[in-house]
Write a structure and sequence with these properties.
This protein has helices at 14-29, 67-72, 103-114, 155-169, and strands at 4-8, 34-38, 52-56, 59-60, 64-65, 85-91, 118-120, 123-124, 136-137, 140-141, 144-146. By secondary structure, it is of the alpha/beta class. The structure holds flavin mononucleotide (FMN). The site of flavin mononucleotide has 23 residues, from helix 1 and strand 4.
């Protein structure tokens, strides 16, 4: 049993490929802490078995959740998430959908907060071009926004910085093996 569960949904594999990058990055900085679940195949109450959650959801259909998240969204109403720390990443297309860029981050983020979770992993909106996002609160994304349609070269550094931020905010140092010299 790992302390962190990563739950993601993906219609056209962009998010799945980002999950692969997150796995690689975690193996470098905080190995053996992560279990991956595709929400198309895993019931959402499995989230209750983890203290820390990383959530991946692209925005689809102009401001909507990805299909599998959308199909299971109402199940979140019955999850008691007090004591969980949750970090969300979302994929979107800032030029194709500038008025609903990465809305899914905010739709899920506000739901998790309503269910009692603490949301971490907020990031700056600097470096993005869009006019509105439901994923923004107080001028910050409520998670990590990625745009692999237009800005894929920025993705590896954004992921890497975010993972270090999560190591700090989840306080993962306590799970790391000491280096015996
Ligand atoms: C029909 C359609 C609607 C979309 N709507 C949005 C949107 O409202 N906001 C956004 O940021 N991206 C939107 N996107 C872009 C997707 O989020 C983007 O392609 C993402 O990388 C898909 O991730 P996935 O392959 O993991 O499903 C849309 C894409 C399509 C094809």
């Amino acid at each position: 049993m790992t302390p962190i569960g990563l739950f993601y949904g993906s219609n056209t594999d962009y998010t799945r490929l980002v999950v692969d990058q997150i796995i690689e990055e975690f193996e470098l900085v905080a190995p053996n802490l992560l279990t991956i679940h595709n929400v198309a195949k895993t019931p959402l109450d499995k989230m209750l078995t983890y203290d820390f959650l990383i959530i991946g959801c692209p925005t689809w259909n102009i401001g909507q959740l990805q299909d599998d998240w959308d199909n299971h969204f109402l199940e979140l109403d019955s999850l008691h998430l007090v004591g969980k720390q949750i970090a969300i990443f979302g994929l979107g297309d800032q030029y194709g959908y500038p008025e609903s860029f990465c809305d899914a981050i905010g739709i899920l983020g506000r739901k998790f907060i309503a269910q009692g979770a603490e949301l971490v992993g907020y990031t700056s909106t600097n470096g993005y071009e869009f006019s509105y996002s439901a994923g923004v609160e107080d001028d910050r994304f409520m998670g990590l926004a990625l745009d692999d349609e237009n800005d894929s070269e920025a993705t590896p550094d954004r992921i890497s910085e975010w993972i270090w931020q999560l190591v700090d905010e989840f306080d993962l140092v306590r799970f790391l093996e000491p280096i015996v010299g």
